[in-house]
Amino acid sequence: MLLLPLRAGAQQPQSEEEQLKQLRESIDRMVENYEQVLDLEDWQTFYVDSILTHDYEALREELKVLQAAKMTNADVYQQVRDKWAEQIHVSMQKVLDGRQWEKYLKSGAAREKKSRDKRAAKRK
Asked: What CA–CA distance (Å, rounded) separates 101 from 113?
């Protein structure tokens, strides 16, 4: 789920403006989903939106640098995606209460965390 905003743009070349618009729309959908599933309060919605906006933009910029450098190693791209997914995971834990955190983990976040940890252990 964390890579949905970035995968959509990978299908065909798009302008920077189109990419940013698509990213914003994807983040908005994710925030709406979290609002409904996790029953977020207004202040939590603000923070979740801020976290996703900042971290996805930072991820996008870091991937752009790798692409500009003509990096072809897929593992490097995966490491960058994992780094930002972990950042989102840690930030979300700070915003959500215990009940919401459990729902968040059950919605797939626990499985994604396990996969990231497994890849990190494999790299070491």
From this structure: 13
Return phi, psi of residue 32, to 5°. -60, -45
7-24: pLDDT as tens digits: 544 555 678 889 889 999
Contact 30, 50 (CB under 8 A): no
DSSP assignment string, 14-58: --HHHHHHHHHHHHHHHHHHHHHHHT--HHHHHHHHHHHHHHHHH
CA distance 18 to 12: 11
Return the half-sphere exposure (C-beta side, CA atoms, 13 A cut-off) of residue 70.
Answer: 0
Taking alpha carbons only, the member of 55, 48, 39 closest to residue 93 is 48
